[in-house]
Amino acid sequence: MRTTKLSNILLLVVIAALFFIPFLGRVHLFDWDEINFAECSREMLKLDDYTRIYVNFKPFWEKPPMFFWMQSVSMKIFGINEFAARLPNAICGIVTLVVLFLCGSKLYDKKFGILWALAFGGSLFPNMYFKSGIIDPWFNLFIFLSLYFFILYHWKRNGLQTEGLPKKPVYYAVWSGVFMGLAILTKGQVALMVFLLVLGSYFVYNKFRIFFGWGHALLFLVVTALVTLSWYGYETAKNGPWFITEFLKYQYRLFTTHDAGQAGFFGYHFIVLLIGCFPASLFAIPAFFKGRYTSKADKDFKIWMLLLFWVVTILFTIVQSRIIHYSSMAWFPITFLAAYSFYKWDRKEMEYKKYVGVLTTVLGGIIALVILAVAVIALNIKQLIPYVHDTFAQANMAADVKWNGWEGIVGILLVVTIVVGLWQLKKQAYLKAATTYFVGTGLVIFLAAAIIVPKVEKYSQAAAIEFFEQRQGEDCYVTTLGYWSYGPFFYTHKEKPENQQSYDEEWLLTGNIDKPVYFVTKVDRVDNYKKYNLLKELYRKNGFVFLKRELLSK
User: Fold this and answer.
1) What DSSP letter does each residue of 167-181 carry, written as one string?
2) Within this chain, do residues 538 and 474 fall inside the same structural domain, yes or no?
3) Distance (Å, rounded) from C-alpha 333 to C-alpha 397?
4) Among 317, 351, 385, which residue terminates a domain?
5) To the nearest whole number, what is the mean pLDDT of the chain?
């Protein structure tokens, strides 16, 4: 039995690695988050300081260090590049699928474990984020594991299920605390907020009956604190409370206000989850309703997942900022519920609803059409320029990008996936349908990352990034005008400034500079800087204008 499970895990690791690792370095990191985080990790290495986070060689208190530790190790091994910045999340993808397989196998059986791993790995955003360089995949995994071990603790303590739980309750409480501590070290105390809100919701559902021991709860908090103090405590003891205080202030502001460009309508996260977690989001719908349960644990775990979904979506609907990955923690319950639907349909313990197939076909068809439209529009993009009234967008569209029409095969593959999957649903071949939908969608994302995304990136930011890369090793200053970017830091391999005046834009434009200065701005903003006579335009490309201020000879 152990040999079989190990072989299943190794096979899953190989398949996940083939899906998540290739093409990680094929496209530049995207502004803002990807480049921002990669730069923090680069500066960790540059400054040889792994206890405090910096960006542009100034303290950056918005995030704790766990993810940057991972990235800096990756960069130490593979160099300062896109592959190294994204590899930690590819590893997270592999680990996540193995974790879900093991959890699903423990909760139900191997079949369910495979379905859950398939649902997570074969849905749009969950798959795509494992190819990114942002923090949330690890953050979400640690929160999920903390909650999962607390559920096991609850089951063992209260006798809800003891089979397969050989350890004492304290064992599961400790591991829950360890993973919560890691989650807080990854992105902050919002992890504990989500966890406690889910526990509070379960407390209400449980008719206000205490389902945990106060001693165990205290132990959980102590273990969580000990893990987090490995950084919070050390940073405070070494440098005083300023950095941690600023970090906590930022976390509070994040929940009470929204940054520019991060506002959105009330139902934002529901739409994001519906589309972004396709196709799992639609297959999860039937599992939201009451069903026939085979055990107390069967019903209870589903309740926990439903509570997790509603806590995450409602909490981040209340939060002022509307950012896609804020609700990404809901991917775990959504993919569980999708796997649950297929599992119950296959066992004839839940009735298949035809509307699920219809909705999946409609939404999948729309997504496929969008992908096909990208290929068609790209082939004719220059003919569309006169109909666009934004100067910067017009210049973006004029980029010299080679499209041959074969890119549409990605959309065609999704159409085939939807058609075959629907036919299998009608034949009541539910496990085959699950494999078709999720593997097919995974292949669509794989091909899109290899074929479409690199070409699309050339329209948006590639010209500026390439200019930054050309400045590597040159003794100069590089900055942007009229817009913000982390590109000038990461892609120039910026050194720590010796002259603090270099942080002052006005000094770079008019002051007594000690090095040549390169400026990057956009075509719709360059007129704002014509009054600076010392600026010389080098060239324009894809909407960006590249300027230089020479060092005056003495």
Assistant:
1) S-HHHHHHHHHHHHH
2) yes
3) 40
4) 351
5) 92
| Percent of the residues in the chain that have a pLDDT greater than 70, as a whole number | 96
Whether residue 501 is contained in a domain is answered as yes
> Exposed, middle or buried, 186 (CB in 10 Å: 0-12/13-18/19+)?
buried
Identify whether 242 is preceded by a cis peptide bond (ω within 30 of 0). no
pLDDT digits (tens, 9 = 90+) for 45-78: 999 999 889 999 999 888 999 999 999 999 999 9
Listed residues 460, 475, 500: the one ending a domain: 460
CA 335 → CA 71, 330, 362, distances in Å? Answer: 27, 9, 20
Residue at 63 is within a domain: yes
The number of domains in the chain is 3
Q: Is 223 a residue whose pLDDT tops 70? A: yes
Q: 497: which DSSP letter? A: P
Which tokens is 432 given?
């085959």
Assess whether 78 and 224 both reside in one domain: yes
Tell me if residue 375 falls in helix, strand or coil: helix
**Domain check: are 186 and 134 in the same one?**
yes
Longest dimension (CA), the chain: 86
- Structure confidence by residue, pLDDT tens digits, 253-311: 666 655 544 555 677 889 999 999 999 999 999 999 988 898 999 999 999 999 999 99
Q: Are residues 261 and 338 in the same domain?
A: yes
pLDDT of residue 260: 40
Together in a domain, 136 and 41: yes
Are the CB atoms for 207 and 253 separated by under 8 Å? no
What are the residues whose beta carbons fall under 8 Å from the beta carbon of 80, sequence distance 6 or more? 42, 45, 490, 493
Asked if the structure places residue 529 within a domain, the reply is yes
Inside any domain, residue 554:
no
Length of the chain: 554
Q: What is the pLDDT of residue 319?
A: 75
Whether 381 and 257 share a structural domain = no
Q: Is 547 left (phi over 0), alpha (psi -120 to 50) or beta?
A: beta
Q: Pick the range with the lowest mean pLDDT from 62-66, 315-319, 491-495.
A: 315-319
Answering whether pTM is above 0.90, one says yes
Domain around 252: 2-351
Cis peptide before 279 (omega within 30 of 0): yes
Query: Distance of CA 276 to CAs 29, 125, 300, Å?
Result: 21, 5, 27
Residues 75-104, buried b or exposed e (16+ Cβ, 10 A)? beeeebbbbbbbbbbbbbbbbbbbbbbbbb
φ, ψ for residue 54 (rounded to 5)?
-130, 150
